[in-house]
Design brief:
single chain, alpha+beta, Arc Repressor Mutant, subunit A, 2 domains, three-stranded antiparallel beta sheet, 7 strands, about 50% helix
C-alpha cells in the first residue's frame, strides 16, 4: 500500500492524498518544492492545493523569495490536515487511565476530569453570567459543539421540556474503560446552561446519544 493510501477522506483524490503526505514529510513547502515529486503541470498542482485549502487541510503559512520575481507562497498542513495521520494520544490516555484505575487511583482519575471540566467552564464563565436563559443555552450548546460533542437541542412535545442531545462522545475510548468522564461532562453542561439536568439517554447503555432533559419548571 502506498503511504498516502492511509489517508482516508471521502472525495479526496490520490494526488491530493500524496500532496498531504509530501507536506507531512517535507514540512511547509512552496509549490515549486512540492512539484519535484509530481509529474504535473504547475497549474494543475495549484488547483489541487486550492482544493485542499478549501477543505481546510492546507493553509498558507508564509512566503519565501527564491531569486528574482515575486516571493513564493509557502503551504503547510492545518491541524485538521495533521489529524489525518496516525495519532497515538487516545491509546496513551486510555493506557494511563487503565494504569491509574488498576493501581487504586480512581479518585485521581475523577479529580482530573472534574478539574478539566472546571477549567473549560472558567473559560466562558464571565460571559455566560451576563446572558439570559435562552442566550445562555445557545452559548452553552455552542461550547459543547466546539468541544466535539455534536449537540442538538430539541423540545419535548408532550412535556415542553428542553432536551439536549450530545450525539458524539470525544472520549469514547476512555468511557469504554471508565464512566468517570461522564460525571464531569454532565456537571460541565449543567454549569454552562445553569440548570439541573436529568439524563434520559446514555451511549454506554446502547443509546445513540447522551441526552439530558431541562425541566421546564
Amino acid at each position: 500500500m502506498n503511504d498516502a493510501d492511509q489517508i482516508r477522506v471521502p472525495g479526496l483524490g490520490q494526488t491530493q492524498r500524496e500532496l498531504l503526505h509530501s507536506l507531512k514529510r517535507r514540512g511547509p513547502s512552496t509549490t515549486g518544492e512540492l512539484a519535484d515529486g509530481f509529474d504535473l503541470a504547475t497549474g494543475t498542482l495549484r488547483e489541487h492545493i486550492r482544493s485542499l485549502e478549501s477543505r481546510r487541510l492546507v493553509v498558507r503559512v508564509g512566503r519565501r523569495r527564491e531569486g528574482p520575481g515575486r516571493p513564493h507562497v509557502i503551504y503547510g498542513l492545518t491541524d485538521a490536515g495533521q489529524a489525518l495521520f496516525p495519532q497515538g494520544e487516545a491509546e496513551l490516555l486510555v493506557g494511563l487511565v487503565e494504569h491509574l484505575l488498576g493501581t487504586g487511583h480512581a479518585a485521581l482519575v475523577e479529580d482530573f476530569f472534574l478539574s478539566r471540566a472546571k477549567a473549560d467552564y472558567d473559560q466562558v464563565a464571565a460571559r455566560l453570567q451576563r446572558l439570559g436563559p435562552a442566550e445562555r443555552l445557545s452559548e452553552g450548546v455552542r461550547f459543547m459543539a466546539e468541544a466535539g460533542y455534536m449537540p442538538e437541542v430539541e423540545q419535548d412535545s408532550k412535556t415542553g421540556d428542553t432536551v439536549i442531545r450530545l450525539c458524539n462522545c470525544p472520549l469514547r475510548s476512555v468511557v469504554a474503560v471508565t464512566q468517570l468522564p461522564c460525571r464531569s461532562e454532565e456537571r460541565l453542561l449543567s454549569a454552562l446552561v445553569d440548570a439541573k439536568l436529568e439524563r434520559i439517554a446514555y451511549m454506554p447503555d446502547g443509546d445513540d446519544s447522551c441526552s439530558y432533559r431541562i425541566r421546564s419548571t
